[in-house]
Design brief:
CATH topology of the largest domain: Thrombin, subunit H
Strand content: 35-45%
Number of domains: 2
Number of helices: 8
Distance between the termini: 62 Å
CATH architecture of the largest domain: Beta Barrel
Shape: elongated
CATH class of the largest domain: Mainly Beta
C-alpha cells in the first residue's frame, strides 16, 4: 500500500503546471485581475485546488482513494482563445515530491456552446500524451472536472521510478474553489445598474427614477441582445412620485430598437392573474443573461396599501428595478420598482396607467403599439421575443 500511495501522490502532482508568465506571486495575480475585473470571463481568477486520486486494478475494482484538500493555488487567465492555468503555490506540507515534475504538464480550458461548460485538456510534454475532460463551473464559484491519467504518462512515471507497471488505472477528480475575485470584489467594481425596456422604436426606454437618480452618465446595454455594445442615453422626463423615468438613447451609433412586440394594458389586473418579470438582477454574481421569474398578482395595492402599485409573488432582486411586468398574454401591466425585505416573495410594480400618463406629457408622445405579438404564445416563446427589448441600464 505504501508503494501505491507514493505513486498516487506522484501522479497527482504531475498534472499541476508551471508556465512562463510575468506574475509569480498571488498578490501580483490579484492586482492583475483587479485591474480588469469588469472584463473577466467567469473562469478567470485565482483558485484553491482540492483533488481526489483513485487507483483501479486490471478488473476496474477501486483499490485506493486519497482526498487532498487545498493542495495548491492556481490562476486561470485568458490567453488568446483559451484559458491557461498557472500554479501560484503548492502546499509542500502534504507531500515530498520532485517539484521539477510540474513543468512537464500544461492545463488549458476552452469555451463550449454551453454556458459554464469548458473543454479541459492537460498536455504532458515528457510523454507526449493528453488527458481531456468536461469542466463545469457553477454560479457559486466551483469548478469540477475529472479524467483518467494517460497510459503513456503512467508508464513514464513508473519507468523513471524503476517500477514495473501492471496496467493499473489512475483517475484524478478536481474540485477548484474560486478565491479571487470574490463576490465583494465584483460588487465594488460593478457599475450601478437597473433594468429598462423599450417603449418606442426611436429609442425611448422606461426605467425607475431611483435607477437614474443622481447619475452623471447613463448607458444602455443589451439592445438587440448585443451586450458588447453600450449606448449613451439622456433623461426625457421623470415622475419622481411614482418612481418612473423615460430615457432616450442619444448615440450616433444607434438606429432603431425595432417594432415593440407588446401592448400596454391600462385596466386593472385581477388578484390571482399569472404574471412574469424580466430583468437583470445581481449582475456581479448572476451575469448578464436576462432572468425570468413568474408568479401571480397578490394584491391590487402595494406597500402599505399604495394604490399606484401591484403586489406580486414573483421574486425580484436589486437590478430588477425598472424591468417590465407582463400578464400571461404578454401585455405590459407594470414596472418593477421594489421588494418587501421583511416578507417572502412580496414584490411591487408601478401600474402601467401611470406610465401612460407620463408618456402623454412628452412634447411628441410615441404611438402606442396596438398589435401584441406575444398574445396566445407559450411563455418560452414570449420570453424569446420580448427579451430583445429589455435592457441593462448602467449609471455613474
Amino acid at each position: 500500500m505504501k508503494i501505491i500511495t507514493s505513486i498516487l501522490v506522484m501522479i497527482q502532482l504531475g498534472a499541476i503546471n508551471i508556465i512562463a508568465q510575468p506574475f509569480s506571486t498571488q498578490a501580483q495575480w490579484e492586482n492583475y485581475f483587479k485591474n480588469k475585473i469588469l472584463d473577466l470571463d467567469p473562469i478567470e481568477g485565482i483558485w484553491s485546488i482540492s483533488t481526489t486520486m483513485k487507483y483501479y486494478d486490471w478488473y476496474n475494482d477501486l483499490r485506493d482513494s486519497e482526498y487532498h484538500p487545498q493542495i495548491g493555488v492556481s490562476a486561470i487567465y485568458k490567453f488568446g482563445s483559451e484559458y491557461k492555468d498557472y500554479e501560484i503555490g503548492h502546499n509542500a506540507d502534504y507531500y515530498s515530491y520532485d517539484a521539477a515534475d510540474n513543468k512537464y504538464s500544461v492545463i488549458s480550458f476552452v469555451n463550449t456552446a454551453s454556458e459554464s461548460v469548458y473543454l479541459m485538456e492537460i498536455y504532458y510534454s515528457r510523454s507526449y500524451s493528453k488527458a481531456r475532460a468536461n469542466a463545469v463551473l457553477t454560479g457559486s464559484g466551483l469548478l469540477e472536472f475529472s479524467y483518467e491519467k494517460p497510459t503513456a504518462e503512467i508508464k513514464y512515471i513508473f519507468r523513471e521510478k524503476g517500477l514495473e507497471w501492471d496496467e493499473d488505472k489512475y483517475t484524478v477528480e478536481h474540485q477548484w474553489i474560486k478565491i479571487f475575485p470574490s463576490k465583494i470584489d465584483y460588487e465594488k467594481n460593478q457599475p450601478a445598474s437597473g433594468s429598462g425596456f423599450g417603449i418606442s422604436s426611436n429609442g425611448i426606454i422606461v426605467t425607475n427614477y431611483h435607477v437614474i437618480d443622481g447619475a452623471s452618465t447613463i448607458k444602455v446595454r443589451g439592445v438587440n441582445s448585443d451586450f458588447n455594445k453600450s449606448y449613451k442615453a439622456k433623461v426625457l422626463i421623470s415622475d419622481r412620485n411614482n418612481d418612473l423615468t423615460l430615457i432616450q438613447i442619444d448615440d450616433y451609433g444607434f438606429t432603431s430598437l425595432g417594432t415593440i412586440p407588446f401592448t400596454i394594458k391600462t385596466s386593472l389586473a385581477g388578484v390571482g392573474e399569472n404574471i412574469f418579470v424580466l430583468g437583470y438582477p445581481l449582475r456581479a454574481t448572476m451575469g448578464d443573461e436576462i432572468k425570468l421569474t413568474n408568479g401571480i398578482i397578490s394584491s391590487k395595492t402595494g406597500f402599505q396599501g399604495d394604490i399606484t402599485s401591484y403586489q406580486i409573488s414573483a421574486p425580484v432582486q436589486p437590478g430588477n428595478s425598472g424591468g417590465p411586468l407582463f400578464d400571461s398574454q404578454g401585455n405590459l401591466i407594470g414596472i418593477i420598482n421594489a421588494k418587501h425585505v421583511g416578507a417572502e416573495n412580496a414584490s411591487y410594480a408601478v401600474k402601467s396607467n401611470y406610465l401612460i400618463n407620463l408618456l402623454e406629457l412628452l412634447p411628441n408622445p410615441p404611438q402606442f403599439q396596438t398589435v401584441n405579438s406575444l398574445s396566445g404564445k407559450p411563455l418560452t416563446t414570449q420570453v424569446e421575443i420580448v427579451k430583445k427589448f429589455v435592457y441593462i441600464i448602467e449609471v455613474e
